[in-house]
Amino acid sequence: MSEKRNISLLHCTVNGKERDDVVKDNLLLADYLREEIGLTGTKIGCDGGECGCCTVLIDGVPQHACLRLAATCQDAEIETIEALAEQNRLSALQRGFHEKLGTQCGFCTPGMIMAAEGLLRENPNPNEDEIRQGLAANICRCTGYIKIIEAVQFAVDELDSKGKAA
Amino acid sequence: MEYMPNFQLHRPATAEEAVKMRSDNAAALYVAGGTDLIVNVRRGIEQPENLIDLSAIEELKSVTKDKDGLHIGAGVTLKEVAENENILGKYQAVAEAAAAVAGITHQQYGTIGGNLCLDTRCLYYNQSEWWRQSNDYCLKERGDIGHVASGGKRCFAAFSGDVAPALLIFEAEVDLVGPEGSRRIPLVELYQNDGLDHLTLKPDELLTAVHLPKALAGCPSRYEKTRIRGSIDFPLAGAAVRLKMKAKKVNDFAIALTGVNPYPQIVKGTDDYIGNAFDDESLDKLRDNVRKQAKPMKTTTVAPWYRRRVIGALARRLTEELAG
Fold first, then answer.
1. Which CATH code for domain A92-165?
2. Mean pLDDT in residue range B304-323
3. Distance of alpha carbon B262 from alpha carbon B120, whole angstroms
4. Calculated CA dihedral for residues B212, B181, A25, B8, nearest 10 degrees
5. Cα dihedral B40, B42, B48, B54 in deg (nearest 10)
6. Residues from chain B contacting residue A134 (CB–CB below 8 Å)
7. Is the pLDDT reported for residue B194 higher than 60?
8. How far apart are CA B200 and CA B294, in angstroms?
9. How far is B260 from chain A (nearest CA, A)?
């Protein structure tokens, strides 16, 4: 770490790829992802942790990328919305948002999906209350939330039936 | 991208190292989860030259139990506090308060230490740089007039942490580590009634742990808050109540409030109820007593008179519920 220039050497994993970057100490994770790496799926809505649009998973836990300094993510595993699709096929949650019209303008969607992803990893079979609780820190100004909850339920059902088939 | 001051980030591995970094560096601030502090840094309210990130200090992240009670590291996340089996039911109000902080995403990286040391909040303070500048700033930051009350000589910014009142009713103590070593004080002594300077922490001191006494484990308790949006906001008013009944009479009783004063406040006069049963009349009297002691000022968009009504109603309702 340089004494004068206020920079840090950051080693982390972003969407499965290990990276080493020199970052400014005051660089926010959201700006690191969007400006330095070019992963613009993560949105910046409010700049204050109120909207949840910038939610990403850090070591599997949903956190606000706009309130986290990039240099504090040393050795962390960071996952963004870009990590979810596999071999060009949408993830169950992404399909849910598509099938159930959980997206209108789309700005909150990456944050919603990453918060839901974190929820499902911890609790693969949440009821409606638990889904509402899991998405409580994410704001959507279009859908009125009903469609978003249905989208998550769609993913829960799909993952559940897949689990049974396997 | 909003304005970010140019600061140097430090990542100590131990509490001792953190304290040393703080005393060695000018204009340094501690940051734990950052859910509140980073917002203030982004808004130019805080302009640190050095930021000491506490998230890599493993020794602050455990909850342990022994013959004296429960010991919670300052770096334990609010979600862990809300779900810990030694806190749920045993110190129920503490779990409920942790689960009521902001939204679930904040609780997953916001810490109990951070919530206890939360800066006071105000309508005229938690605003963007241009907003504050056009208002000539305020007593709490850069300006010299307080906008909340006439005269403008005092800062009434409200303490808005949820966990502190819940810990206060359980007579919690906290460890503070400084350059001269460690000291343990009752949590109530961590706070003072001054919106500008509500923490009694010395400049280099770091809050490292919270202790809950074993004697009060299992004593029935609740925490509830009123906020603008049920999913995410700071409290407009919050009340924690601990009440033990014996043969339908009050045996042990404590109430603490948040969001209505510059410091989390223990309600005076609850001992007067010991040995008596509750009825509508005494519950109404309790409600009025709570309203009298709460002094909400115009620090939120919601009017003080409403918050004063709400805080009394909350305390009364929780007490009635706990009285059974």
1. 1.10.150.120
2. 97
3. 7
4. 150
5. 70
6. 104
7. yes
8. 21
9. 22
Contact A61 B6 (CB under 8 A): no
Taking the CA atoms of B273, B278, B280 and B284 in sequence, report the sign of the dihedral they define: positive
B53 part of contact set with chain A, CB < 8 Å: yes
C-alpha torsion angle, residues A59, A45, B98, B167 (rounded to 10): 120
Answer CATH for A7-83 from 3.20.20.10, 1.20.59.10, 3.10.20.30, 3.30.420.10: 3.10.20.30
Confidence of residue A161 (pLDDT cuts 50, 70, 90): confident
A7-83 and A92-165 agree in CATH topology: no
CATH topology for B61-117+158-323?
Enolase-like; domain 1 (3.30.390)
Measured between alpha carbons, how far is B27 from B7 in angstroms, rounded to an integer? Answer: 10
Counting every residue written for chain A, the total comes to 166
Residue corresponding to tokens 């709400």: B310
Distance of alpha carbon B190 from alpha carbon B7, whole angstroms: 28
Strand order in the sheet with B28-31: B8-10, B50-53, B28-31
Output the pLDDT for position B2.
53
What does residue B252 show for φ and ψ, rounded to 5 degrees?
-155, 135
Q: What is the pLDDT of residue A164?
A: 60
Domain boundaries, chain B: 1-58, 61-117+158-323
Q: What is the CATH number of domain B1-58?
A: 3.30.43.10
β-bridge mates for residue B184, sequence order = B175
CB within 8 Å: B38 and A68:
yes
Mean pLDDT of chain B: 96
Q: What is the mean pLDDT of residues A114-142?
A: 96
Is the per-residue pLDDT at B137 higher than 50? yes
A36-44 LR contacts (CB < 8 Å, sep 24+): A36/A70, A39/A14, A39/A15, A39/A80, A39/A82, A41/A80, A41/A81, A41/A82, A41/A110, A42/A80, A42/A81, A42/A110, A42/A111, A43/A107, A43/A108, A43/A110, A43/A111
Q: What is the pTM of this model?
A: 0.95
Give the pair of three-digit tokens for residue B159. Answer: 């303490």
Q: ipTM surpassing 0.90, yes or no? A: yes
Can you read off the two tokens belonging to residue A156?
């829960």
Q: CA B250, CA B47: separation in Å to the nearest integer?
A: 49
Q: CB neighbours (10 Å) of residue B44? A: 18
CB contact under 8 A, A52 and B1: no
Tokens of B260: 């209505």
Judge: B4–A74 Cβ closer than 8 Å, yes or no.
no
Instruction: State both tokens at B140.
Output: 């709490």
Mean pLDDT computed over B244-273: 97
